[in-house]
Amino acid sequence: MITLYQFEPALGLPNASPFCMKVENYLRMAKLPYQAPLVSLFDFGKAPKGKMPYIDDDGKVVADSSFIIEYLKQTHGDPLDGWLSPVQRAQALALQRLMEEDLYWAVVHTRWIDPVGWELTREAFFGKLPVPLKWVVAPLARRGMGKQLHGHGMGRHSAQEIAAIGARDITALADFLDDKPYFMGDAPCSLDAIAYAFLANLVWVPLESALKRHALQYPQLLAYCERMRERYYG
Fold first, then answer.
1. What was the pLDDT predicted at 39?
2. Nearest CA to 57 among 72, 41, 42, 39?
3. What is the pLDDT of residue 140?
4. CATH 3.30.360.10 fits 2-76, yes or no
C-alpha cells in the first residue's frame, strides 16, 4: 500500500500545497490505492528532504513530487502518458517548468508577502498554534519564505512586476489549453495532475489577487478545474 505524507487540507482545497495536491491527483488519476495520514505543517522529522510530500511504498521511501511520480510510473506502470508523442512530452515538461519554477513563486508572493494574502495564510497555516508560539513561528516562517523568494530571484522584483510575470504564465496556460478538455487533448495525462493542482490553488483559494483576477478572465481555466474536480474528486 502506498502511503502519501502531505499537509492537511487548507484554504478550501484538498491541499494548499500544489506539490502535495499534484501527487494526490496523480494517484487518483492512475487509480493507485493509497492512504494519506495528515501531517502537521511543522512535522518534518521524517521527511527525507525536509519538505512535503513524500511517499512510503511498502518500505520504499521517495521524496519530491516529481521523483515520486517518476517512481510510480516505473514501479506501477504508466497508464497516463503512454500515448504522448515525443513532442507532446517536451511540451508537457516545458509547461510543468512554467508552473513549478515560475508561476509557483508568483503565487507564493501573493500568499506570504502581500499583506492581504499573508493575513489569510497566517490564519490557515498557523491559526491553530497556541499563543505565544504562533506569534513567534508565523513571522519566522514568513521571513524564511521571503528569503527563498529572494534567492530564487522572483522576490527581487516589485509586486507589480511579479504580478505581470505570473499573468504571462497564466495567459500561456490558457492559450495552450484553449478549448481542449485536457492539456494534451481529449485524454488526461500526468501534466493534468500538475496543472489542476496549480490552477485550483489559484482560482479557488479565497484570496483576491491580481493573479486570481487575471486567471478568472479565462473561462476555459475555471471549466478545466471543475472538470478535473468532478472526474477525480466528485
1. 67
2. 72
3. 93
4. no
The DSSP string of 88-103 is HHHHHHHHHHHIIIII
Per domain, the residue ranges of the chain are: 2-76, 86-233
How far is CA 132 from each of CA 42, 118, 122, 142, rounded to the nearest angstrom? 16, 18, 14, 16
In the chain, the N- to C-terminal Cα span, in Å, equals 23
d(CA 215, CA 203): 7
**Cα-based angle 71, 193, 87 (whole degrees, multiple of 5):** 80
Which 3 state secondary structure label does DSSP give 47?
A: coil
HSE of 139, CA atoms in CB hemisphere, 13 A: 4
- In this prediction, residue 96 carries a pLDDT of 98
The answer to whether the predicted template modeling score (pTM) of the entire model surpasses 0.85 is: yes
What does the pLDDT read at residue 17? 93
Degrees, nearest 5: CA angle 19-225-24: 35
Contact by Cβ (8 Å): 53, 6: yes
Identify whether the C-beta of residue 92 lies closer than 8 Å to the C-beta of residue 189: yes
The C-alpha atoms of residue 207 and residue 6 are separated, in whole angstroms, by 22
CATH number of the 86-233 domain: 1.20.1050.10
**Taking a C-beta distance cutoff of 8 angstroms, is the pair 13, 62 a contact?**
no
The answer to whether 69 touches 19, Cβ cutoff 8 Å, is: no
Longest dimension (CA), the chain: 55
